[in-house]
Structures are given as structure tokens and as C-alpha cells.
Amino acid sequence: MDIRTLMVHLELGGDNLAVLAVAGDLATRCSARVIGIAACQPAQVLPGDGFGTGDASARDWAEKKKELAAAEAAFRAALAAHAPEWRSIITYGSLADYVAEEARAADLIVTGKDRGASLLDQSRRVNIGDLTMRAGRPVLLVPHGAVALAMRHVFIGWKETREARRAVADALPLLTLAARATVLEVTSEAGRTAAQRHVEDVAAWLEEHRVQVTPQVLATMGTQSSYLRAELLDRKCDLLVAGAYGHNRLTEWVFGGMTQDMLMNPDFCVLLSH
Predict the structure, then answer these.
(1) First and final CA of the chain: distance in angstroms?
(2) How do residues 31-52 score in pLDDT, each as one tens digit?
């Protein structure tokens, strides 16, 4: 499947320059059109705030409409060459659900990292972890400061799971753009033989789709997620393709260590699929 439409999520009150730059670069490479999206919730106005709940609520709505208009203007200016379309909402519902549902119109969601509950006004925060688990589309996380989607060396972080299989299939259009690709499984010494078979199978499948990839297994006695991150940084990873792992506990997703780390602190672009 080709990437024909990107959904570009802009965070209100955040720095969206890297997201817009990477989205523009990818849209050019793939000849894709772009859909910009932003969402926020009305503030919870309590009696005694400002000049009364009605006045405070009206001011909040006016401020957020202004922020949405500014986000749209930035999106259209940055991506004018890619037939930009804009969608936004002020809603009392889940922001992640809104973006996930709108993603039916796109092949790939492009967004920044999750800033976490404590670093951003919750009425303006789309929970990127929830979005990743609910969208049914791959999510490309862009680190701060990125100016393009570099594809010199792409890594596939392999685990023998449904999520990893889904991620590789979702990433196929991007993997065809890579100058070099490695499918890498980090395991214990006891799991080395099985892991070698896994990565060789993945590499053979990718080669059938005209993607040249090197299979590799690394064994460690330590924490596999920490070891993998250090290895990727040392080898100057440009893009990591990985499954997103988590389980739903009541109303929130609880993520595995590597997934949580990538959501909150990506050092390079990360494509996650669930």
C-alpha cells in the first residue's frame, strides 16, 4: 500500500515546527496530500472563576478558537504545496478518540511526542499513547528539532508478536525509501537461535517486497529495552519501526517500557503500530 494521505496532528500551545517539517518532507517523497488536525476541550470553569462562569467560559472558547485558527494558518502555510485540508474541534469528549476516528481518512498519522499529563494543559493535550492504540493506523512520532525524515539507516525493532508483524507491514512504503535497513531482535542468550530464525524470516519477506535488509540478533543479560535504545543511538538510527505494546486498565492504557519510552522521549523518528 502506498502512502497517499497523511494526517498531521498539531498540538495547541506546543512547538509544531518539527512535525510540519517532517510531514512536508514525507508528503513530497510520497506525492501525498495532507490533512491537518487539532483538538481541545473547553476548560472546566468553576463558580468564582473570573467574572462568573458564563464570562470565563466565553473567554476560554474565544481563546481556543483563536488558537485553532492559528494552528490552521501555520499548517496551511507550511504545507501549501500538498493540497492541505483542515479539521478541528472543541469537544467535551476524548481528544484522542476524535483524532483516531478522523484517521479513517488517512494512511499515516504524523505527530510529536506525548508531553505527559503534567507538562501541558489537559484541555489541549491529545494523549498520544491512547491515539496510537485506538487509531487503527500507524503513528509516526517526530522528535523535537527534526527537519526531515532521514532514511539513511532504518531499524525494525523485532519481537515475536502480532504488533511487530503489523508494524512491519504498515511501514513497508517507508522501508522502500531506506538507504539501509536492519531488522534487529534483542533477546537473552538462550533465545538467540529462535530470534535468528525470526529476523531471517522477516528479512526474506521484506526482500520479496524489494526492501534490502540485514537480519541481526543481539543477546543481553540486562534490560532489553534499555540495551536496544543505546544500540540505536550508537548506530545513528534515523527511524525505528516497532509494535506498540500495552493493555487497557479501566480507562487508561498501561504501556510496556520501550513503548512508553518512545512515546515520551523519542531521540529519532519512531513508527508505532498496534
Answers:
(1) 17
(2) 999 999 999 999 876 655 554 5
147 belongs to a structural domain: no
Q: State whether 50 and 96 are in the same domain.
A: yes
Distances (CA, A) of 267 to 7, 12, 48, 119, 272: 22, 22, 44, 19, 14
Confidence of residue 158 (pLDDT cuts 50, 70, 90): very high
Entry pTM: 0.90
Whether pLDDT at 64 is above 80 = yes
The residues, any chain, with a CB within 8 Å of residue 49's CB and separated by 6 or more, are 56
The three grid cell numbers given for residue 95, joined into one nine-digit string: 481528544
Task: Give CA 237 to chain center in angstroms.
Answer: 16
How would DSSP label each residue in 173-201?
HHHTT-SSEEEEEEE-GGGHHHHHHHHHH
Q: Give the domain-ending residue among 142, 170, 188.
A: 142
Number of structural domains in the chain: 2
Question: Which ranges constitute the DSSP H helices of the chain?
Answer: 17-30, 53-78, 95-102, 128-134, 162-175, 192-208, 224-234, 257-264
Please tell me whether residue 35 adopts helix, strand or coil conformation.
Answer: strand
**Contact between residue 151 and residue 45 where contact means Cβ atoms under 8 Å apart:** no
SS3 content of the chain, % helix, strand, coil (to 5): 45, 25, 35
Q: What's the CA gap between 36 and 118, in Å, rounded?
A: 25
Which structural domain, as residue segments, surrounds residue 256? 154-273
Q: Please give the Cα distance from 222 to 93 (Å, whole number).
A: 42
Cβ atoms of 4 and 32 closer than 8 Å? yes
Please provide the average confidence, as pLDDT, over all residues in the chain: 88
